[in-house]
């Protein structure tokens, strides 16, 4: 009787020991912990891969600022000038999908004097559009046409890459190669070898839409000179965090 009782207690104890890790595993799945292999030396490497592209899209903000004695006069003058600007864009072959209203504003203009309340002297109307040029080489010519038609507010251009997915994939591939080369270097210095990659995580990317050198956007002093936009190159980068197992 005693032996049987002892056997039952031992089996129950073993069952409890078996079920405990299952419960612990169920709880641990709620959080993601870094993967640490059971055997070997872990090496974490962060590498940036890059490639370059010539920008093929220029984004420019252009608009008209007009003033008038009344709000209606300012808006009317602004609308008339803006219609000429939009017509110039249509003649230049800019697609409607590449032109979008960016801002419309009307504000009073004041005259200030000491110890006297401000007096409204008129109104200022602003209307601006964002324009994408899919032929960067024509950006300067179009800018000149906009100014000739009354645009008196221009900002840009911002140069970017229209379809950056292929370039980003090249940068990612380069990042993996750089990470592996660095892992081989560390492993050799430590008298080890790279066994395998444990994990790869993308830590950041730049598709060439921001940062880097600004494009040249200049207008010569001569009246018949043309505005020149020089696109240069944009760097496309991808940063990866790679965990290696060294053996």
Strand order of the largest sheet: 3-4-2-5
CATH homologous superfamily designation of the largest domain: Protein of unknown function (DUF541), domain 2
So what's the CATH class of the largest domain? Alpha Beta
Unreliable parts: 1-29, 211-223
Q: How widely separated are the two ends? A: 54 Å
SS strand fraction: 35-45%
- Helix tally? 4
Short description:
This protein is α+β, with helices and mostly antiparallel strands. Helix content is 34%, strand content 40%. It has helices at residues 2-28, 71-91, 139-148, 165-189, and strands spanning 41-53, 57-68, 99-113, 116-133, 153-160, 194-206, 216-218, 228-230, 234-246.
Written account of the structure:
A hairpin with a 2-residue loop joins strand 3 (99-113) and strand 4 (116-133). It is elongated, with a radius of gyration of 33 Å. 34% of the residues lie in helices and 40% in strands. Helix 2 runs antiparallel to helix 3. It folds into 2 domains: 34-53 and 164-246, Protein of unknown function (DUF541), domain 1 (Translation Initiation Factor IF3), CATH 3.30.110.170; 57-160, Protein of unknown function (DUF541), domain 2 (Alpha-Beta Plaits, 2-Layer Sandwich). The protein has a 4-stranded antiparallel sheet with strand order 3-4-2-5. Residues 1-29 and 211-223 have low confidence and may be disordered. By secondary structure, the protein is of the alpha+beta class.
């Amino acid at each position: 009787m005693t032996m049987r009782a002892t056997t039952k207690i031992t089996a129950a104890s073993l069952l409890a020991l078996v079920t405990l890790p299952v419960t612990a595993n169920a709880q641990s799945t709620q959080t993601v912990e870094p993967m640490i292999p059971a055997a070997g030396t872990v090496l974490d490497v962060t590498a940036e891969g890059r490639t370059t592209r010539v920008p093929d899209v220029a984004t420019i903000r252009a608009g008209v600022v007009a003033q008038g004695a009344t709000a209606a006069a300012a808006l009317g003058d602004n609308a008339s000038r803006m219609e000429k600007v939009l017509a110039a864009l249509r003649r230049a072959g800019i697609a409607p999908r590449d032109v979008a209203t960016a801002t419309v504003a009307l504000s009073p203009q004041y005259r200030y004097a000491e110890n006297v309340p401000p007096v409204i002297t008129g109104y200022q109307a602003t209307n601006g559009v964002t324009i994408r040029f899919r032929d960067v080489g024509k950006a300067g010519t179009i800018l000149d046409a906009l100014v000739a038609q009354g645009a008196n507010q221009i900002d840009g251009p911002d140069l970017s890459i229209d379809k950056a997915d292929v370039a980003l994939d090249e940068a990612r591939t380069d990042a993996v190669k750089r990470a592996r080369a660095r892992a081989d270097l560390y492993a050799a210095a430590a008298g080890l070898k790279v066994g395998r990659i444990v994990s790869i995580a993308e830590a950041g990317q730049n598709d060439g839409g921001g940062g880097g050198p600004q494009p040249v956007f200049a207008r010569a002093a001569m009246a018949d000179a043309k505005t020149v936009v020089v696109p240069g190159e944009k760097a496309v980068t991808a940063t990866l965090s790679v965990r290696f197992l060294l053996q």
